[in-house]
Predict the structure.
Amino acid sequence: MAYAVPKEAYNGKVLNVKFGKAPNAVSIGGENAMPFLSFEGEIPNKPVIAFEIQDMPPDDWPDTVKNQFAGVSSDPVKWAQRCQNELKAQAIALRLISTHPDRENRSPQDAAKTVKDVLSAINIPLIILGSNNVEKDASVLVAAAEAAGGYNCIIGKAQEGNYKTIVAAALAHNHKIIAMSELDINLAKQLNILITQMGFNKENLITDPMCSALGYGLEYTYSVMERIRLAALLQNDATMQPPIAGDVGMYVWKIKEVSASESEAPLWGSLEERGIAWEALTAAAMLIAGTNLLIMRHPKAVETVQKVIKELV
Amino acid sequence: MALSGVEIFKLLPKTNCKKCGFPTCLAFAMKLAQGGVDLEKCPDISEESKKVLGEASAPPIRTFALGAGEKAVKIGGETVMFRHDKKFFNPCAIALNIKDNLSDAELKKAAVEVANSEIERIGQKLRIDAISIEYASNDSARYEAAVKLIASAAPDTAIILNCKEPSAAEKAVKAVADRKPLLYGATNDNAETMAGIAKANKVPLSVCAQGVEALISLTEKIKSLGVEDIVMDSGAKTAKEIIEHNTQIRRSALRKGFKPLGYPVINFALRDDSTFEAALASVAIAKYASIVVISSIAKWKNLALFTLRQNIYTDPQVPMQVEQKIYKIGEPTDDSPLLITTNFSLTYFIVSGEVENSKVPSWLAVMDCEGLSVLTAWAAGKFTSAKIAQFIKDSGVEGQIKHKNLIIPGQVAILSGALEEKLEGWKITVGPREANGLPTFLKSRTA
């Protein structure tokens, strides 16, 4: 029987976002086909993985992943250098978790200093994340954006409740933005519109439709990402065309499956490998749903996902 | 290709006899076109029309069982490209590949491990569904012995005979024909012989080709030789080939109604690095494989793969639910706090996770609200003061704790007054609006 490969005619294209400074700047997005279908479109950039580091010791991380950074995790500068020099990270995601009112409630000025210290110690691109406290992030990320002026960083996450001040700071200091909404394609679209209405170039925007861990709502994130991509490519919806970020590590490394010991959960097998697999599989699912930028924690999980990426492009 | 109502009408007797339960033949034809009624309802249809209509109304991807008995798994039958369009129906079977030249003890150990792989997660029993036995010994007597040994050590597990050598395959098929093994498989060189073996023993047959297009002539040939239950391996090995081939195959079947590719797909995701193999297998599970074969299993790996498969195959229109009951988080005592939430599985996972993070042992009352989240359940009248009061009284929690203090989600703060009236003697505390506020909330209460 006569056969022709059924190809999809895409009208739209994912925007290309470049962050960091030459010669180590990184580009994400730019594809005009659904994830990894290069028989019917151009996929110019590989997905990028950023290593997550924090501005205070990760006491709340399970041992499996915390131990990987023993000796450096009390100092964000050393931690960043370890990721860059030994783990060959393409980018670093610095989470300013200490600024959360329930953690150490450190000031925006403290956060700005950490940002400066980390930036002067590395030459790969930096993603600067707040503590996910909507009010506090507004002031912390403004100070961080100023401190990082000239470095073409990604700042996040701008949410419905705080995007105005964060976007204004990113505009003033030439940074990219991660816009986060909660597992709803319409909310993601609305936030992108609100941000661009402030005069923020949509080509500097990255969408985070909220990640979920394997077994803890992964299917919701997966389908929202697929729907965002379909809207961007098939309907040429310009408000849905920013690249997608997946903040995988923070959702994975707090669930029971990555912390229950083998004696507590004998049916679940080795804790060490279980945790790594959990982060790697969550990230792999995000990739095939359309994620362009992954934020991850465990070096072995990152290594595994890099192998998958190598086979995907 | 599916026929339109009018095209179907032309093939009907046009007598408007009403025996089918519809007022006219046209009305029956329209319903038939939507798949809402069975062709058999028409008592007077000609054999010739029946054949034409039967083929046209066959599902775009054939469905059949892998294995026999209670633990046989249905494969194929998918109708959409994206799970949000409707849902994925028949979860991808996961199979362990074992080489026949291992020692008997090793074979037995692996088979028993598969047979005992069952884990329960959110009310579903999940397991490694099949064993693929690879003909690596090049000795048909050894192969037959290995197949028999594995079949008896894993008495309910489906079997895939991974053997392209017809004489060895035939002996093995005969030895376990009652288990309905999948014969893998037919290539350009052996297709006729393999089809003969599959047909004679009434077992499904997998074709193996290099590339999607090369599958077509093979499935057509096998079908013309009388084998209906066919599985396809396009030779995809890398993650990219798996996604691209499987996408092309499913699109051809669903959008073009292209019958020669309307069969379930098998992918071999074999890698030495076990974590990498798990990641690769998840790519196949998410992207349309009906069977994925891996080279090693382990409890941690099985759990991760089962969970991924469960997530992808969840019906997007039916919220996942957890059982209504009072859950213990940590080791609560009779003065540990009591919280209430709804039984939407995500709500439960997030709330229980945050309570766990707080390290404050607690009682979590999870109320059946048909799988709705807190605010939706409240809006739908399923999480009301009267129903909560009834649930708390019926749950028997009053016998488990010595205080009468209930923490309700901040989203439904409005219920606190009415609840205090309906639950006599109870004090209602309004908790945080979002679950991520729970650790601080619970810690500050005990401080």
Notes: The CA atoms of residues 153 and 168 of chain B lie 21 Å apart.
